[in-house]
Design brief:
Elements lengths: L6 E3 L10 E3 L17 E7 L6 H12 L6 E7 L6 H11 L3 E5 L6 H10 L5 E4 L11 H9 L4 E5 L12 H12 L19 E4 L6 E3 L6 H8 L5 E5 L14 H19 L1 H11 L3
Parallel strand pairs: 1-5, 3-4, 3-6, 4-5, 7-10
Antiparallel strand pairs: 2-9, 6-8, 7-8
The structure holds guanosine-5'-triphosphate and magnesium ion.
Length: 284
């Protein structure tokens, strides 16, 4: 029997959207009808990943299949126009657990991730880069940590020595400085070594009431600071080199990060303002 075609394309607004609530389901978006409600929704944000996407989807599914859980892999592509979406469409036609969402007129890694999470009902949500710098083979360890009760399981470049073996001294130094600046912001009971990894799973319940910003690459840091995470497990991994294509991280991402840090610091110094924001959010 042929599987139903699961390609969901939509036009995103031209303007940068305001911070959004997570999660919410968008009734206007055509939803794939999974046979079983997915427990895990893993988002792969893509921008020009035609050279990697096929291999990463294969490895992700191979890693998740033995777990025997209902899952969905959601590729959120920002209209790459390099063949990425066509490759995913073809795969999704053969495997209904793979979904394709194409955003038009929008950019931003954080926003793409939130976009995917909002369009799923899964209780556990996660993200992995599509350039094969994150090894999908550790997904079972991340899943098992969540299954054992952790609110958050993250793939950590700093939990083991040598996690950044391909980085030069300058990039290591900058990364160390960026993490050091987050130390006072993190909750003491869940302080993690790699608050900026882009590969993690989290219980939806922990982020239900928070605003996540749509720009920037540092969504995990926001979750750690603003979310209701009570426990986090770090699974070490070695950050590889991207297999194909080029990095989208650059000066703009650096500036985005500094501005995010500023806002997180400001929030941490004004708890009353936070409480007020939390009250307002429910109106979104
Ligand atoms: N949908 C979407 N995906 C993005 C965007 N920017 C980056 N990505 C994806 O997010 C993931 C991480 O981006 P990279 O450019 O590899 O950034 P990085 O891994 O921090 O940096 P490198 O180590 O230099 O590769 C990849 O899967 C990208 O395709 C974006 O604006 N929209
Ligand atoms: Mg990368």
């Amino acid at each position: 029997m042929a599987h139903p075609q699961i390609v969901e394309q939509e036009d995103a607004p031209q303007m940068t959207p305001a911070p959004v609530l997570v999660p919410k389901t968008a009734p206007d978006v055509p939803q794939a009808v999974p046979q079983v409600q997915a427990k895990l929704a893993l988002v792969l944000p893509t921008l020009h990943e035609a050279g990697n996407i096929k291999a990463v989807l294969l490895r992700v599914r191979r890693s998740l299949d033995p777990l025997g859980i209902p899952y969905e892999v959601i590729v959120v592509d920002d209209d790459s126009q390099d063949g990425t979406s066509e490759i995913v469409k073809e795969i999704s036609e053969a495997d209904p657990r793979v979904r394709l969402l194409v955003r038009r007129g929008a950019r931003g890694l954080g926003g793409a991730v939130v976009h995917g999470w909002e369009r799923s009902q899964a209780e556990i949500v996660g993200v992995i880069d599509a350039d094969l710098q994150h090894p999908p083979e550790i997904l079972p360890q991340l899943w098992k940590a969540i299954e054992s009760g952790a609110d958050l399981a993250l793939a950590s470049r700093y939990a083991a020595p040598g996690g950044l073996r391909d980085w030069n001294l300058a990039r290591r130094g900058l990364s160390w400085l960026a993490i050091w600046l987050t130390e006072p912001l993190q909750k003491p009971e869940i302080r993690v070594k790699d608050p900026m990894t882009g590969f993690f799973l989290v219980r939806r319940a922990c982020i239900r009431d928070i605003r996540l910003e749509t720009q920037g690459f540092k969504i995990l840091l926001e979750i750690l600071v603003r979310g209701e995470v009570r426990s986090a497990v770090e699974i070490p991994f070695s950050f590889g080199l991207r297999k194909a294509g080029s990095s989208k991280a650059g000066l703009r991402e650096g500036l985005n990060y500094i501005s995010l840090l500023g806002r997180l610091w400001r929030d941490s110094l004004t708890p009353r303002r936070n409480a007020q924001t939390a009250g307002n959010k429910t109106n979104h």
